[in-house]
Amino acid sequence: MTTTTYHGETAFDLGTLDERFEADRRADPIAGMVFGRGSSAPADADDLLLEADGRSLPDSVALTTIFWRSFLTLAPIIAADLLALAAAGLVARGALWLTFRSAADCMGWAAPLALLPLVIAYWLSDLYVAIWVHPVIELRQLTHTTSVGVLAAAAGGLLAPPFPIWCLVALPAAVALVPLFRTVARRLCADRSWWGYPTLIIGSGGAADGVARTLLRDTNSGLCPVLLTDPDGICRSSILPVVNDPATLASIVRARTVRHAVVSLPDMSSARLGEILDRYSEMVPHLLVLSDHSTLPTLWSTSRKCGQLSGIEMRNGLMLATLQFMKRVIDLTIALTALTLSFPMLLIIALVVKFSSPGPIFYGHSRIGRHGKRFKAWKFRTMHKDADVVLREHLALDPVARAEWHRDHKLRDDPRVTSFGRLARRLSLDELPQIWNVLKGDMSLVGPRPIVEDEIWRYGDIFRLYTTVKPGITGMWQVSGRNDIGYTERVLLDQFYIRHWSPWLDIYILAKTIVALLSRSGAY
């Protein structure tokens, strides 16, 4: 086993790390990348030390490096916004040309350029901070800024028709296309070595290593972890090079022009954390302090200050009548539209279910809803008759399947499912009758996965939270891997959804549901 040491301390265990990287690379190639997005082997701490070697980059070179890194990271997002706004303008002109040709001719082909100044509003609204922006928050800010900008332009152009009409047509196109183009731009750039910012991880133990792994996999965050340090000097090995000596760390940070750091010290006292932040803020200008998201609902939190008192306000959207009313309006609008458009398909599926295997067309199963109320969740039948007997016999004969059922309450190769049922589940067609549950008010379009009585024990104390909302047809579980994730993670996803709920989170999940249905990831 080879160990790298300097200044009397162990940096990281290369022998163990090689084995871990080899295993991680087989499971996830991204986990094997440390510096940039293109390296396939971990960097050695001695390499970092030799690179620094007490020689920081000259100020002019460092500033140039920082500038180009920021420019190359932000430029694709700005370009995506310009393209999206231009496309929204073209969509508006095309819609006018089809419905009101004289108005389209008055606007001319240069009309789409009128939306481009919105990028200035995006800049002033901090929408070009390319790191660690939750997509739900970004969606809300983009929608607000775009709506205010376009509606203000429409109001200012009331005396110059048909410009206000063009603005009103361009608004929904811009609201939809700008987030879409941004997502595509990030996906295209995320794995490039020139995109993102080299990042220092400040933490201790498994929590810091977990943060590093998360950032290495979530390349869209814009943070590229390259180094880890433990303020208490306890951590010696990690997926990243570990440097605990302050002087050596400062030299490497300057040499690598590291300007961002993620702090993960959830168990540390406030006083001690303040000292550590003061120490590292002299080394790295941008510090992102992580909170324990599993217990602190931070997605919609806002900092507040009153005199010498400061704190964080947390809003519970579940208690706000206006947001609950908005959620119900969205449910009814989309459910009625979906029922109308899919009615012919519903009839076809019903006939196929009826004649492909003996049994009823629909299957109603008792589930737990809001306030613990039981209701019947309806689906197209996808199983044979006497499915419970078939399952019991199968589990008695197959210990592997029995363990899988006990762990996930699902079977990848379920003997109860009919041939058409497998296809219907794969395409999520079996859940279409739950639109009726949404119209009745038993379910919502978005919410936690509806559970049965036997699953309550898996939720533990979280079950109280679960009963505060309606279960949903889709939710965090369905758009995060579905059956490919374990039950413990399902519970955590439901917990996250309930504690961070808002109409914006629902809209984000509905958009991701479309992607999940097209990819059919984790469906069986």
Explain what you see.
With 524 residues, this protein is α/β, with parallel strands linked by helices. It has 19 helices and 12 strands. The protein has helices at 14-27, 45-52, 59-99, 101-107, 118-124, 135-156, 163-189, 205-217, 246-255, 270-281, 321-356, 387-397, 399-408, 419-426, 434-440, 456-459, 463-466, 487-499, 503-519, and strands at 3-6, 9-13, 197-203, 223-229, 260-264, 286-289, 302-306, 309-313, 362-368, 374-380, 444-446, 472-474. It has a 4-stranded parallel beta sheet, sandwiched between helices. Residues 1-43 and 48-55 have low confidence and may be disordered.
DSSP helical segment count: 19
* Distance N to C terminus: 44 Å
Side by side, the strands of the main sheet go: 4-3-5-6
When the domains are counted, the total is 3
What is the percent of helical residues? Answer: 40-55%
Structure in a nutshell:
The chain is an alpha/beta fold and 524 residues long. The protein contains 19 helices and twelve strands.
Annotation keywords:
about 525 residues; alpha/beta; Rossmann fold; four-stranded parallel β-sheet; 12 strands; globular; disordered N terminus
List the helices and strands and how they pair.
Blueprint: E1 3-6, E2 9-13, H1 14-27, H2 45-52, H3 59-99, H4 101-107, H5 118-124, H6 135-156, H7 163-189, E3 197-203, H8 205-217, E4 223-229, H9 246-255, E5 260-264, H10 270-281, E6 286-289, E7 302-306, E8 309-313, H11 321-356, E9 362-368, E10 374-380, H12 387-397, H13 399-408, H14 419-426, H15 434-440, E11 444-446, H16 456-459, H17 463-466, E12 472-474, H18 487-499, H19 503-519
Parallel strand pairs: 3-4, 3-5, 5-6, 11-12
Antiparallel strand pairs: 1-2, 7-8, 9-10
